[in-house]
């Protein structure tokens, strides 16, 4: 659920609908400020200035992006007291129903925190070893790469398993879609790993879908029943649950985008992102973390289980060019960069669905927590709802107001350092691939380089045609723009004894939140030409393939028609198949570059940590009765007619 896509080598935007279920934060700083609130009591004396600032920010988002931001809800906890809880806007625009503090929102990947808690509870009971192979608990689980047998629960919970990414079939819908996790596991049997388990960490929703399967196998009950009995009910989270059937009661925020209201959204990947909740309920969950596993003196999970979730899981990774992002178990970060800039530790998880975005923070030492959720805003508007920026702004101001820190940390400066002698671009030019947009690096005669992205028919200049010059800090700058780049080569010997060498295009800037910190991320991996495609692949290029097993009630089918895939190529990079899958498009086409593994199969080509290497494809063709079919993950396609 939510997270901006891997930032394309340009200023990243806030999470797109395609980036559901994901970590990410919210694009770069943009003011999120006046609207009126509802469903709250008097402003408490504690944090009065912080609350007033937050109200103004939310009000600005509601008025600044009325076609998309219908409702926002927030809660702030100090110790065991909710000092601010308020809902703004309308749960239903069509029926003019105000959002209240008991209005439930789809909180997307914030749900992953509960999946990690479930694993810790089973560990406490002696049923689960975090470092034992998952195949021990799921004997029918298999993949084409034999190394799948090395995947552990710890790998699944820390995004380091090597699973391809996200099974998108029937993931978001306007009616319940049972069987998602079973179908996702079955699809993995016809796929390879994209990297060795534990080699790197890249956001992976399917890892948590497999946790759903592990919990069901060990607990001998379905995942939602286990969470209800062992987390939601003990914590008194009466306004939270999983929508596995159409609700008959309760208040729910309805999807709203582009000035149109849609029916109730159902999220099929339950452990990955299927929880509906209120910020008030999430503060009960926050108290569980602040109390190290107890709630109102009742032990829910061990203190060590809470500590395990909050422990840095990146220390043993082989490839980790983005050390600012410190994965926990279930948490996107256990040392959130913006709070770390103020000297404060924070555990953070964000989430997005097709229509909603959320952010959840726990500050264990300050005994402070926050949850914010609402309709996803339009990233192109300066005044809109950005969960990450709003959450950071509220928390940092609360820390100032209660005396924990003396002042807000400074915003990141964007003054370019002096020009330095260029190290040369001979080896760096070429095409860089990721999960959504091939990027070309072109050298200019003055020693600078320019970036362009593939738009489906041609290379389109990026960032207004900016030219990036080498500077004394070792980065390439386009003037005083907030984003800079460099090239990094990572090499070594992998766990199988095989040498590797990858060149990454690295991006640096205030990518997430409110602009108080810079993050360094690899956004593309250089690919080198391969042998020309064989006749079988050449014959498939230019064809369109239509999905045959996606429900018409899913969000992509309803909004954009039956999903389809097209196969093409890039003249600059022979030997690869350029794949567009329409279900992943978000305003513009998204493409991946795959390499042939055989005449009937093409596989993943990049190993990129953090986010740009997420959600990769593997294609498999089969012929039955003289008819060729295509499989991508759990989707089945047939050639389009005409």
TrEMBL record:
Record PROSITE patterns: TAT
This protein's UniProt keywords: Membrane
Presence of the UniProt keyword rRNA processing in the record: no
Pfam family, one: Beta-lactamase
Compartments where located: Membrane
Entry GO terms, CC: membrane
UniProt entry tagged with the keyword Membrane: yes
Principal localisation: membrane
Chain ranges of the Beta-lactamase-related domain: 67-392
Name this polypeptide is given: CubicO group peptidase (Beta-lactamase class C family)
Organism: Pigmentiphaga kullae
